[in-house]
């Protein structure tokens, strides 16, 4: 990208973040580009289109799928919610990621298709709570087509198998006359969706998103790449749709059933405790005595069954059930890639193991190096990274002395985020196949205050400094040849100005305080930065 082209991109993208997508001008285009105090301002000509942005660069990390995707879906009329469709079109969003990020790491796509009455509950993977399946893959694609965006799917790794995700590829892309194509047609969608872009997992390198994998970074990366088995210790049990601690508590009734969180389980590796007492596995409860502390166990599903007080003791009411067990064997990324590409060779399957520490890529062996070392340099089409700027983690900042300092911190973080992407591109080029590339499936500046929340700086996501941050990210990513980008995030759980593009339903308020759209090339506005002081 030429320097003048990059400058048009940067200033136009800043205008886009401020609410006018697809228009822009540089300061050189202006006459009278200063305010009354001589302070430079950005002027926007809403009538002149001076550049074209690839729709693959203006994507957004989609809302969570549950709660009707936080208002994106209108369940009463079975359609995309009209209040958000027009705003997404106006913003020029070219790609939407589904079903989400951290919350979707245990998503079960097969429970989210077909008649609503037949759909299952799901486990929200961050808090372990049960959630609904109303906004499933078919509703997502209806929304995608309504707003004119490109689909991008994050397929879960922690609780799925390569066969299950390959089935998802078939459901989305196979023609009629096949098992999954015919099922999709029976569900009202005869034509294949043609979903091209897929990721396997979300931020599994993070300490809070390991699920069944090891706490050791290098071992966990190998498990992600090639699969394996991992010991789980003193883990609460639950149900297939509930991982809250309360789901591991006995209600005192006969015939109780629980499941471990991450099946399958290596047979005979489990230790099941009721409070501090270890109970014993039996093949059949029918032969157990009334006071025998026993249970049956299915290693494949991880299901634990207790007795009824006649054949096997009933865990006393209020007691807590925990499990030690070897979770596995699980498949790895290479297995997912192979199965998915066998179903549809035209799709692109991306790996996500790109850890960050202190504002830079984590040290040690990289995922591309590991894959090449084991002869699998060609077993991924690209890598997705989340080069967030985290003020407290990367810059050790929870507040700022003045607006200038806050702006400078934000742009320092932007530069570091671009370097993260550049470093990953270098790794992929050095160790991956020729066609492998890097994409950004989440990005943005994350402000956490003294108590690890954004209340110390509620304005950051709509301050002009953040608009410039995102604009510069897009420009740098374009310079680096990033294939596609989905920023954080589309919809918030609640209405108002949050860490999202459109707040929450029902109003879907664009997250800015002042927008600027004028027919005059010399019109200007001063944007509110509203930085918190120390």
Please describe what this structure looks like.
By secondary structure, the protein is of the alpha/beta class. Helices cover 26% and strands 16% of the residues. It has 12 helices and 24 strands. The chain has an 8-stranded parallel beta sheet. Helix 5 packs across helix 6 and helix 5 runs parallel beside helix 8. It is globular, with a radius of gyration of 25 Å. The N terminus and C terminus are likely disordered.
User: What is the number of helical segments per DSSP (H or I, 4+ residues)?
Assistant: 12
End-to-end separation? 40 Å
Unreliable spans:
1-32, 512-534
Alpha carbon gyration radius? 25 Å
Strand order of the largest sheet: 22-20-17-8-7-4-1-24
State the shape.
Answer: globular
Q: Please state the average pLDDT score.
A: 85
Structural class: alpha/beta
Instruction: Kindly estimate the percentage of residues that lie in beta strands according to DSSP.
Output: 15-25%
Describe what is shown at a glance.
26% of the residues lie in helices and 16% in strands.
Set out the fold topology:
Elements: H1 3-17, E1 59-60, H2 66-71, E2 73-74, E3 79-80, H3 82-91, E4 95-98, E5 122-123, E6 130-131, H4 137-147, E7 150-155, H5 162-173, H6 179-186, E8 197-200, H7 217-226, E9 228-236, E10 257-259, E11 271-274, E12 277-278, E13 280-281, E14 294-298, E15 303-306, E16 321-330, H8 333-343, E17 348-351, E18 356-357, E19 360-361, H9 367-373, E20 382-385, E21 389-390, H10 391-394, H11 403-431, E22 437-440, E23 445-446, H12 464-480, E24 486-487
Parallel strand pairs: 1-4, 1-24, 4-7, 7-8, 8-17, 13-14, 17-20, 20-22, 21-23
Antiparallel strand pairs: 2-3, 5-6, 9-16, 10-15, 11-12, 11-16, 14-15, 18-19
Helix pairs in contact: 1-12, 5-6, 5-8, 9-11, 11-12
